[in-house]
Amino acid sequence: MQLSEDAIAxxxxxxxxxxLASSAEDGRPHQVPIVFARSGGRLWSPVDGKPKRRGELVxxxxxxxxxxxSLLLDDYSSDWTQLWWIRIDATAExxxxxxxxxxxVSAAIAALEAKYPQYAxxxxxxxxxxxxAFEPSRIVSWTASS
Length: 146
Hints:
CATH class: Mainly Beta
Low-confidence stretches: none
Largest sheet: 7 strands, antiparallel
CATH superfamily: Electron Transport, Fmn-binding Protein, Chain A
Structural class: alpha+beta
Radius of gyration: 16 Å
Number of strands: 7
Helix content: 10-25%
Strand order of the largest sheet: 2-1-5-6-7-4-3
Oligomer: single chain
CATH topology: Pnp Oxidase, Chain A
């Protein structure tokens, strides 16, 4: 059974983490958890100030090479009547440098700050400022119960 459009919208607004599946230049799969927020019909994820390895992240290199991705939101419960997932097929756009005077970007950063109180003490963007926009092309869902 599919989730309702309202249930999908609610989860996209509130769910804290998604899994980003991308492809490396050689076609190998790569999957990582990301934070995200919805703004202006797109989903946004920053390369933020949390500790990371040096250099450009693998996910950013992958998105530059192959922008077609999949995001997965899911919830597991030992009560299988509560299971659900949402898969979002999308095209990714890497914004680097991030245009500071773009109203769409400003709204996306505000949405990330509103969703994640951690951004009060961790910068939303680190140097070099990098923001990823996901343009959904297909959303598929499943739930064990109505």
